[in-house]
Amino acid sequence: MFQIFRKELDWEGKKLVLETGKIARQADGAVLASIGETTVLCTVVVAKSAKPGQDFFPLTVNYQEKSFAAGKIPGGFFKREGRPSEKETLVSRLIDRPVRPLFVKGFLNEVQVICTVLSHDMENDPDIVSMIGASAALTISGAPFMGPIGAIKIGMIKDKFIFNPTINEIKESTLDLVIAGTNEGVLMVESEASELSEEIMLGAVDYGHKEMEIVINSIIELAEVAAKEPRPLPEEPGEKSEYTKKIKPFRKKFEKAYKEIDKSKRSKLLSEIRNDILSEFDETSNYTLVSTLTKDLEADIVRGSILKTKERIDGRDTKTVRPIVAEVGTLPRAHGSALFTRGETQALVVATLGTGQDEQIIDALEGEYRSKFMLHYNFPPYSVGEAGRVGSPGRREIGHGKLAWRAINPLLPSDDDFPYTVRIVSEVTESNGSSSMATVCGTSLALMDAGVPIKKPVAGIAMGLIKEKKEFSVLSDILGDEDHLGDMDFKVAGTVDGITSLQMDIKITSITKKIMEIALQQAKDGRIHILKEMSKAITSSREVLADTAPKITTLKIKLEKIRDVIGPGGKVIREICETTGAKVDIDDDGTVKIAASDNESSEAATKKINDIVAEAELGVIYTGKVVKTVDFGAFVNFLGTKDGLVHISELQNARTEKTTDICKEGDMVRVKVIGFDDRGKVKLSMKRVDQETGEDIENVNQDK
Q1: How far apart are CA 568 and CA 647, in angstroms?
Q2: Residue 428 to residue 402: CA distance in whole angstroms
Q3: What is the 8-class DSSP label of residue 145?
Q4: DSSP assignment, residue 228?
Q5: Can you give the pLDDT at residue 473?
Q6: Pairing of strands 111-119, 59-65
Q7: Where in the chain is the domain with CATH 3.30.230.70?
Q8: What is d(CA 539, CA 326) in angstroms, rounded to the nearest whole number?
Q9: 188: closest CA among 65, 311, 98, 305?
Q10: Which of 491, 431, 434, 436 is nearest to 201 (CA)?
Q11: In degrees rounded to 5, what are phi and psi of residue 314?
């Protein structure tokens, strides 16, 4: 019934299996990929034809995690998988970015790739498995895909590169680097690093590219026996030469428009020229072809000018960064804020400090965990002068936010040094290239303004590439048009000492090691320049938090005292919060965090907790208050909420007939701790203490 094709290989000690022919046979390509016991079903469906009038390539990639893969039932009311999580969105982008440039130009049929995690062994992350499986499924689908690609994750522990690190290993690693590419070169890089040098990052990329070649060759071997008949390549439209003649006279107008430095004016001029071109054609014309040829002409003008003159659209050379203005304290009520402007790209970044109760709870396949640092990136339509839909964040916003998060995360203080939950919101108020890197710079400034003790300031820069045959130019701090019309988007973030995040996407089949070296060096120079400009606004974190920020006091109590502070059904801790106005969080290790809006509330809550957990010390003298008298003695409140019993025999040296002869309720007395009974109750003595001076009579007598 099944015609199964299977490819197994030992990949540096890990078993990689690619199988097709058994599951999802009606898809154009379906591969069951697994490393260890982590298994992902990757499917590809290619539409039979392109939709009429369509002038773009509609590729959709969906990565989805099923709870059953980890033996879990989804949380929530509906108990089923809902909208994509942040991880699912990010991995979808991770798969999309390296495969998109490998489709034949002119192919406009809809392509859908779905990667479904079926099994997760809690050791091997499904992201790399999904990328490899998607590559294999595309290669055997018959689509005009110039792959396959390979993918690999590189970690670094104790200055040694780790091949496809496990989930536990990556926690200890100073590097989390994902690479994808063909045998010819690298197509995509995504990373988080702990201030590593350009040389180390380049070495990791080079190491990863060599290690993935065995996977690429295995996919080719699978395709040789399992691939479907290739789809015919898109034919060149017969009217192409005729249309080209009509569009060619507009070349000089485009050249003049692209010399306009101001983005708004340039966009207006370009729009007018495009409308003039459309007016040259009637209703029967192929407007998709007209649009494509117009874009090709614009790309040729911009790219050719940069390669020949080294002069860019806005008049800069290839290495110059646009003018920068950085300011902090922009919003008076915010805990920390910054406005970072670079040319026509601007980000308003706001930092908000919260308590442990504000931590983000993330329900992942590997289990539930909490995050105390959140970074949310927003790209409103007005930032590019457009009227558009405003709604929940899209894939791009989530991806850019995560990139900035990775850049900042390695520099954040530990929980012991700074027990706050931190949320960053970046509102991109203007955009003309590299708004994600503006977010990195703005975040660094806002955190310092908020008093978050980050180890060093962080800056980011986006690099571009124009490549024609052997000629190429690497561009620092690219504009939006240079991104659209160029061949590379290479974002580098870091401190003056090293890289913290690196992301690379290219639109051509691959780039050389030499180009990467040049790009990294230019990025370093640009990053240091940006950091100098940022230092004009603020150089280090403020020592005092904003008045509006919560005040957090941290205490450490014994584990056995936790239940005393919480009380039955949370009664005690609830009473502390209600009477003082503070928020109290208690961790399982006995760490108590008290958050309050003012010092008075904080001190009141601290005192109440200290009173509860305080322990009486044998032989120590305390001043207390008589709270109750009984026939056999007096109960004295002497330490916080703690009471002890002064037995009638310990009230005075002489015989005592009645307790009230010596003390009454409300009297302040001096007592000495003389012991503890079987239940932990404290035994006190008054007669062993001079009630006037507080002197220990017992010790005085012993000295004599």
Answers
A1: 30
A2: 15
A3: B
A4: P
A5: 92
A6: parallel
A7: 5-226, 324-534
A8: 12
A9: 98
A10: 491
A11: -95, 15
The SS3 of residue 616 is: coil
* φ and ψ at residue 65, rounded to 5 degrees: -100, 125
Q: Can you give the pLDDT at residue 704?
A: 42
Distances in whole angstroms, Cα of residue 102 to Cα of each of 96, 98, 135, 136, 506: 11, 8, 11, 13, 10
Task: Sort 558 into a burial class: Cβ within 10 Å, 0-12 / 13-18 / 19+.
Answer: exposed
Rounded distance between C-alpha atoms, residue 59 and residue 109, angstroms: 8
Written out in words, the top-level CATH class of the domain with range 5-226 is: alpha beta
pTM (2 d.p.): 0.86
**Three-point CA angle 545, 551, 557, nearest 5°:** 135
Closest by CA to 402, choosing from 38, 67, 85, 74, is 85
| Intervals of the chain under pLDDT 70 | 698-704
In the prediction, which pLDDT does 329 show? 94
At residue 288, the pLDDT reads 80
For 49, the 3-state DSSP assignment is coil
Furthest CA-CA distance within the chain = 123
Q: Tell me what pLDDT residue 701 has.
A: 53
Q: Is the dihedral of CA 607, 610, 616, 619 positive or negative?
A: negative
Specify the CATH number for 621-703; select among 2.60.210.10, 1.20.1250.20, 2.40.50.140, 3.30.70.2120: 2.40.50.140
* 335 vs 386: CA distance, rounded Å: 31
Distance CA 398, CA 226 (A): 37
Q: Determine the Cα–Cα distance for residues 17 and 35; give it in Å rounded to an integer.
A: 7
Sequence-ordered list of residues with C-beta below 8 angstroms from that of 484, at least 6 positions apart, any chain: none
On whether the CB atoms of residues 277 and 291 are closer than 8 A, the answer is no
The b-or-e profile of 289-325 (16+ CB within 10 A means b, else e) is bbbbbbeebbeebbbebbeeeeebbbebebeebbebe
Q: Helix, strand, coil proportions of the chain in percent (round to 5)?
A: 35, 30, 35
All CATH 2.40.50.140 domain ranges in the chain, comma separated: 621-703
Of the candidates 484, 485, 435, the residue with the CA atom closest to the CA atom of residue 460: 435
* Residue for token pair 């034949």: 104
Every domain of the chain with CATH number 3.30.1370.10 lies at: 551-613
**Nearest alpha-carbon partner for 373 in 428, 331, 418, 436:** 418
**Residue tagged 């050379």 (tokens):** 317
Torsion sign across C-alpha atoms 304, 306, 310, 314: positive
Q: For residue 591, which of 552, 550, 555, 551 has the smallest C-alpha distance?
A: 555
Burial 218-244 (b: 16+ CB within 10 A, else e): bbbebbeebbeeebeeeeeeeeeeebe
Q: What is the pLDDT of residue 408?
A: 97
Peptide bond into 148 cis (omega under 30): yes
Q: Which CATH superfamily is domain 324-534 in?
A: GHMP Kinase, N-terminal domain (3.30.230.70)
- Pairing between β-strand 551-556 and β-strand 591-596 as defined by DSSP bridges: antiparallel
Pick the CATH number of 551-613 from 3.30.70.2190, 1.10.260.40, 3.50.50.60, 3.30.1370.10: 3.30.1370.10
